[in-house]
């Protein structure tokens, strides 16, 4: 152990009934480094980090921070020790404001009682009394000073956040930034980030990386959980790979190749090149004309979208999160009302129809938020697998359902789409599956019904390399089978690898159209952030009166 | 007519205080994520305990305090079952109501004949004598028992506590997403216990107010469903203290009207047109039993309105209501 070591986890053992999640894992992190924690879903990364954050107590093993043995009984102990964590599933309360979410648990007293307040009507001796401090911390709450501090932090790291906005008003990308702010606000020495870039655009991720590097310069240590090997190359100093609950190895990133890391993770060789055969385009399956829609706050999010998708075509939609992608996907899937324009699926006008009409017309939808909109967490895999098709007569004569048929169908999906972690399709709940496997299940449900149009919003977000490979191949197979696909992704590589056509969305409009062959990444990046390019290849020239309200 | 309205308002204020006290307790408990359907039981225990104490000691304030304590004792059972043992909140709450009813009927049988000097009607110091002179409402609102004023004062305290204190913010967080609160170093266990105990104290106070100020006697089962109305009131108020004030007085007015429904005649004369149609309807609507359902009907309407009007992510019900929490099972 070098003198630079700040964190040492030794022989961490954590068992759950029937599973050894962490099998005597050792991990050491040096001060000021960004330490990558790499592994497939279910490899035990999150469990290990939950042990470190005091959420789980280990069955065996010790944790030392700066040479001192930590006895973590709760997250409060971890916070007190200077450990912060940004969780994979957002730990935010939608109904509360950004500031309230950030200060929760910090016991910020009303401004007059702050020991650092200037010009308070209370004399300093009273304010500094520990009893007064404790009472004020419990029975009062001052947000003015914290709000200013959060805003300063947000500005410092380039986060575009309104601290008084409610969380539910923010898009996923902004919510992620609030998560990071929560940790920064607590002045942590060791920051655990569980796939922090999963929801950021490449530009935003760059900016985050800059911020993280600035933080490490100040002596902060970072544990960076990721599935993305490109990120390991980009910012990680040393990397530890976990597989099936064991530490497969720790290495300096400069000394290992990507292929080596992938092999360590998966335990076999991984193909990075995707084989995209040429497919003949057929008739248009979707034609959208002048579609407008509003977001959850009733502010216009789509301001006149024209989009045609043909059979066998993948249309990739790139953009900074919060520019109308979520609304676009939901409108095309029929679960968000349009305020103007029309939607034709297979030539039939189904504008304003019920979601069921969209489903029956052959529209499949893979939503961005898997747990909330993609599945019913507390229902079994079987119920989730058959949710869209149980009515169609295959599963018994209505009103009765043939559970044998349902089970068989679900088992087929689980097998063909390699959904792991299902012991029994009627016993295992969808919510018990890991991110990647749940996504495979949702994809299986949406694809196995042989849709004409598939809308996939962030299909590979937060899933591991093996699953990403599988999901991308599945999308390409579906393209070959003649399905028109709308792919919304914040991963530009994915858009480039899969799409036939790329559209850039900015503030609710398509501002740029290109193909992967002739695309210029810089130009796309510029268009995504609203930069002025020349107009030659713009699909629909930006109209005057572009709404600025799309982002707040 | 004026005296009728003044009397009606007086009864409204008295009935509203019971609902306000019990409702505030339930609101705090539910905002922390614990539904307590034992309000009725906790009120009865508070009512009897307060009454016996007042008979024995002659002090209605001591009786009021004992009522609060007994409400908390019963709530502690609920907290232990639901928070520590993670059992079903609905079952535990209903059990609490049945337990409270049974215990107070048994132990209270000997006290029915007793009489006490309960909370006297009083005016506010300094300005009270002038306020009482306000026509119609003066007597009703400004000559009341100390507990009536206390309930209104506590409403302000509860509102401030929930929205302007760290403990309140933490309580709301625990009721919305206990896992998130836990990761922020907030003790879910402690805050939920605190909320349930406060809830029990309020319910006990509501019961003690009932026996020591409202009716000044003890009758088994004297809460007569007011605990359930308090539960409905929380929903009616959409889990917000300020709306609870409106709701409590509305429900209080309905209660006062119900009691007086016999003396109100809204039927039209037998010769009036359509008398044969209107009179049976009016009689039906003014039937005391039917009027007793109005608070629940109003609650259903508010629920329906809230669901239709607001978007799903804005529904007022605490997101983690009925959810127990333990760290290691995700």
UniProtKB/TrEMBL annotation, chain A:
ATP-binding found in the keyword field: yes
SUPFAM superfamilies associated with the record: P-loop containing nucleoside triphosphate hydrolases
UniProt cross-references to Pfam families, sorted A to Z: ABC_tran
Stretches for region Disordered: 517-552
Keyword annotations from UniProtKB, A to Z: ATP-binding, Nucleotide-binding
A GO molecular-function annotation: ATP hydrolysis activity
Polar residues: compositionally biased ranges: 540-552
PROSITE patterns: ABC_TRANSPORTER_1, ABC_TRANSPORTER_2
Annotated ABC transporter domain residues: 7-269, 286-532
InterPro entries for the chain: AAA+_ATPase, ABC_carbohydrate_import_ATPase, ABC_transporter-like_ATP-bd, ABC_transporter-like_CS, P-loop_NTPase
Superkingdom of origin organism: Archaea
Keyword ATP-binding: yes
Name of the protein in its database record: Ribose ABC transporter ATP-binding protein RbsA
Native source organism of the sequence: Haloarcula amylolytica JCM 13557
Automatic annotation (TrEMBL), chain B:
Cellular component terms per the entry's GO annotation: plasma membrane
Name of this protein: Sugar ABC transporter permease
UniProt keyword annotation of Cell membrane present: yes
PANTHER family: ABC TRANSPORTER PERMEASE PROTEIN, SUGAR ABC TRANSPORTER INTEGRAL MEMBRANE PROTEIN-RELATED
Compartments in which it is found: Cell membrane
Signal peptide (residue range): none
The keyword Transmembrane is assigned to this record: yes
InterPro entries according to UniProt: ABC_transp_permease
GO molecular function, one term: transmembrane transporter activity
Coarse class of the protein's main subcellular location: membrane
């Amino acid at each position: 152990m070098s003198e630079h070591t700040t964190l040492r986890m030794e022989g961490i053992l954590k068992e759950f009934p029937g599973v050894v999640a962490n099998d005597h894992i050792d991990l050491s992190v040096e001060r000021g480094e960004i330490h990558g924690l790499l592994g497939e879903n279910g490899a035990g990364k999150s469990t290990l980090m939950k042990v470190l954050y005091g959420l789980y107590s280990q069955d065996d093993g010790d944790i030392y921070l700066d040479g001192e043995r930590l006895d973590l009984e709760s997250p409060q102990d971890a916070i007190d020790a200077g450990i912060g964590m940004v969780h994979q599933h957002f730990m935010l309360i939608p109904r509360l404001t950004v500031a309230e979410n950030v200060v929760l648990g910090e016991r910020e007293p009303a401004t007059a009682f702050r020991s650092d307040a200037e010009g308070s009507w209370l004399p300093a001796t009273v304010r500094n009394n520990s009893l007064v401090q404790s009472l004020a911390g419990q029975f009062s709450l001052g947000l003015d000073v914290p709000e200013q501090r959060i805003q300063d932090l947000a500005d410092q790291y380039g986060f575009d956040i309104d601290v008084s906005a409610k969380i539910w008003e923010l898009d996923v990308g902004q919510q992620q930034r609030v998560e990071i702010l929560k940790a920064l606000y607590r002045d942590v020495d060791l920051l655990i980030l569980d796939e922090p870039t999963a929801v950021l655009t490449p530009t935003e991720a760059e900016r985050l990386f800059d911020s993280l590097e600035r933080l490490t310069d100040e002596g902060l240590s970072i544990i960076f959980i990721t599935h993305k090997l490109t990120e390991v190359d980009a910012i990680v100093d040393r990397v530890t790979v976990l597989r099936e609950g064991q530490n497969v190895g720790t290495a300096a990133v400069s000394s290992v190749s990507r292929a080596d890391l992938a092999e360590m993770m998966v335990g076999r060789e991984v193909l990075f090149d995707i084989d995209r055969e040429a497919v003949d385009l057929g008739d248009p399956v979707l034609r959208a004309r002048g579609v407008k829609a509003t977001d959850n706050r009733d502010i216009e999010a789509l301001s006149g979208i024209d989009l045609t998708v043909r059979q066998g075509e993948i249309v990739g939609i790139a953009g900074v999160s919060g520019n109308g992608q979520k609304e676009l996907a939901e409108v095309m899937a029929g679960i968000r009302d349009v305020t103007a324009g029309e939607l034709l699926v297979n030539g039939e006008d189904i504008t304003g129809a019920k979601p069921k009409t969209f489903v029956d017309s052959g529209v499949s939808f893979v939503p961005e938020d898997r747990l909330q909109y993609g599945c019913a967490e507390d229902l079994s895999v079987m119920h989730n697998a058959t949710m869209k098709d149980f009515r169609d007569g295959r599963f018994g004569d209505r009103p009765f359902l043939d559970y044998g048929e349902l089970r068989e169908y679900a088992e087929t999906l689980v097998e063909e789409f390699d959904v792991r972690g299902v012991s029994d399709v009627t016993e295992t709940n969808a919510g018990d599956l890991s991110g990647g496997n749940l996504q495979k299940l949702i994809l299986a449900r949406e694809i196995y019904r042989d849709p004409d149009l598939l809308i996939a919003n962030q299909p590979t977000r937060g899933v591991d390399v093996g699953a990403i490979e599988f999901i991308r191949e599945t999308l390409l197979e579906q393209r070959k089978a003649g399905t028109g696909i709308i792919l919304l992704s914040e991963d530009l590589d994915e858009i480039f690898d899969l799409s036939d056509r790329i559209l850039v969305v900015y503030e609710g409009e398509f501002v740029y159209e290109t193909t992967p062959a002739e695309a210029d990444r810089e130009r796309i990046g510029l268009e995504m952030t609203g930069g002025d390019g020349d107009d030659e290849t713009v699909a629909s020239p930006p109209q005057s009166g572009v709404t600025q309200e799309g982002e707040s | 007519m004026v005296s009728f309205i003044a009397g009606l308002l007086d009864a409204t204020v008295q009935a509203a205080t019971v609902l306000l006290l019990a409702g505030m307790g339930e609101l705090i408990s539910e905002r922390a994520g614990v539904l307590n359907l034992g309000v009725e039981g906790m009120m009865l225990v508070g009512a009897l305990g307060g009454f016996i104490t007042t008979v024995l000691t002659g002090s209605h304030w001591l009786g009021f305090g004992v009522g609060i304590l007994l409400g908390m004792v019963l709530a502690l059972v609920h907290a232990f079952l639901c928070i520590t043992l993670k059992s079903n909140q609905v079952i535990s709450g209903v059990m609490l109501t049945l337990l409270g009813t049974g215990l107070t009927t048994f132990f209270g049988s000997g006290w029915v004949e007793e009489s006490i000097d309960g909370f006297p009607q009083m005016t506010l110091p300094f300005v009270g004598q002038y306020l009482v002179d306000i026509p119609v409402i003066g007597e009703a609102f400004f000559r009341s028992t100390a507990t009536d004023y206390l309930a209104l004062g506590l409403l302000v305290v509860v509102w401030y506590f929930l929205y302007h204190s760290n403990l309140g913010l933490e309580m709301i967080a625990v009721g919305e997403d206990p896992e998130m609160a836990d990761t922020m170093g907030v003790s879910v266990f402690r805050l939920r216990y605190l909320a349930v105990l406060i809830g029990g104290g309020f319910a006990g106070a509501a019961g003690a107010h009932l026996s020591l100020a409202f009716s000044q006697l003890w009758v088994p089962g004297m809460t007569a469903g007011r605990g359930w109305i308090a539960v409905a009131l929380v929903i009616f108020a959409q889990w917000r203290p300020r709306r609870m004030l409106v709701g409590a007085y509305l429900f209080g007015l309905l209660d006062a009207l119900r009691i007086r429904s016999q003396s109100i005649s809204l039927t039209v004369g037998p010769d009036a047109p359509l008398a044969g149609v209107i009179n049976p309807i009016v009689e039906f609507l003014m039937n005391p039993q039917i009027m007793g359902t109005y608070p629940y009907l109003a609650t259903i309407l508010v629920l329906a309105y809230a669901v239709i009007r607001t978007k799903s992510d804005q529904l007022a019900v605490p997101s983690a209501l009925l959810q127990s929490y333990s760290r290691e099972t995700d």
